Amino acid sequence: MPDAINPSAVVVLVSIEQENRDKILSLFRPVEPSDPALIAVVTYEDPSTLQVVLECGALAVIERPIRPFGLLTNLTIARALWLERQNASKRIRKLERKLAGNNRILRAKNILMETQGLSEQDAYENIRRQAMAKRVPMDDLASAIINAHELLTFKDMRD
């Protein structure tokens, strides 16, 4: 067993053997989106072997002795699942950024509602208008409002 996986590897085949369980799990856990597609090679199926296969994040399983029939199918399936995992990870990161931006806009809206006595719709329109006038994203303007409010609030607390 190697100490590390080559970062340029796209697909890795790993022989699942109980005596190497800890080494296998340390190499392949936790599964990161950038990790290569992992194919487990097993001698026989038993609960402990299947547990290691699941824990290391294998996307396909090949039986030993390896026969040509089914090998290409398993490689194709593992690669397709890996690509789906990559795409899902990208979508999740994008949605997390969008959610964080929406939370900042919501917080800035609440600050404007509290400090200027605006309604929720008016506070949102205020942020939108200012962002358009300054040609900056609403998220950036919301961050500026939050930072300014924190600075002014901190100064007020010291006085």
Automatic annotation (TrEMBL):
Residues annotated as domain ANTAR: 85-146
- Entries under Gene3D superfamilies matching the protein: 3.40.50.2300, Winged helix-like DNA-binding domain superfamily/Winged helix DNA-binding domain
InterPro entries from the xrefs?
A: AmiR_N (IPR049021), ANTAR (IPR005561), CheY-like_superfamily (IPR011006), Sig_transdc_resp-reg_antiterm (IPR008327), WH-like_DNA-bd_sf (IPR036388)
Q: Which domain of life is it from?
A: Bacteria
* Protein name listed in UniProt: AmiR/NasT family two-component response regulator
